[in-house]
Amino acid sequence: MQSIFSQHVQLLIGVEFFKGINEEELRDILSYAFIKAYENDEPLFFQGDPANAFYVIIGGRVKLTQLNDEGEQIIHHYPGVGEAFGIIAVLRQVDYPVAARAVGKTKLLMWTEEASKRILLNHPQLGLNSIRLLSKYIVDFQDRIKELSTERVERRIARSLLRIADQGGKHVDNGIKIDWKLTRQDIAEMSGTTLYSVSRIISQWDKEGIVTSSTTHILIKKYHRLVEIAEAT
């Protein structure tokens, strides 16, 4: 049977930050990590906290949120198994720009700030990878700003649901299921709109058979139709 350590090494192979790092090097990198477990809705860190660790998810999911200048909460991302977060903040030695909470029972690999410096010195490829990640985050951030400031509400909601489905949706017989608790308020915060607008549009899509939603999950029944809405001019 494959050991837990080896399973974690295999998981790291698919993490963008560790691209180009061989298994022997990954074993060294993994030796600096701690395993952390969190209960549902338990905070990992808050926006503005000193960035003293980065994480890779090995079980469960995390919600990353940010308060804007008006005090409104925006949901940025729901990273799942095999995804990393907090890397750039730690390497740049700045405060976390977002807050992080566990979605359901969640388990993570964690590298402290000191461990991050050590693995960066031992494995120079990580420095190049961090530059690529920073460039990607800047482009993604610019795209989100454009989306929130210029696109119609229906398009923004469609794009948010598609983004979530692509990140962690499960293919089932009648569509793509988002099976963690995702409220309409959460969708509003991802889309930069109001709960009223989300409820109105989701209810309309429910009538049209595009999606169905409940307190426990959302089912996208007509993915192609949601894409059409997201790309409509």
Question: What can you see in these coordinates?
Answer:
The chain has 233 residues and is α+β, with helices and mostly antiparallel strands. The protein has nine helices and ten strands. Strands 1, 2, 3, 4, 5 and 6 form a six-stranded antiparallel beta sheet that branches. A four-stranded antiparallel beta sheet has the order 7-8-10-9. Helix 1 crosses helix 2, helix 6 crosses helix 7 and helix 6 crosses helix 9. It starts with a helix and ends with a helix. 29% of the residues are buried. The mean pLDDT is 89.
Give short descriptive properties of this protein:
233 residues; alpha+beta; six-stranded antiparallel beta sheet; four-stranded antiparallel beta sheet; 45% helix
Quick overview of this protein structure:
The chain is of the alpha+beta class and 233 residues long. It has nine helices and ten strands. The radius of gyration is 19 Å and the shape is globular.
How is this fold's topology laid out?
Elements: H1 4-13, H2 23-30, E1 34-38, E2 43-45, E3 53-67, E4 73-77, E5 84-85, H3 87-92, E6 99-112, H4 113-122, H5 125-150, H6 153-168, E7 170-172, E8 175-178, H7 184-191, H8 195-207, E9 211-213, E10 218-220, H9 223-231
Antiparallel strand pairs: 1-6, 2-6, 3-4, 3-5, 3-6, 7-8, 8-10, 9-10
Q: How far is the first residue's CA from the last residue's CA?
A: 53 Å
Radius of gyration: 19 Å
Beta percentage is 15-25%
The major pleated sheet works out as: 6 strands, antiparallel
Element-by-element helix/strand order: HHEEEEEHEHHHEEHHEEH
Tally of strands: 10
User: What level of helicity do the residues show?
Assistant: 40-55%
Helix and strand composition category: alpha+beta
- Poorly predicted runs are none
Counted by DSSP, the helix tally is 9
Shape: globular
Mean pLDDT: 89
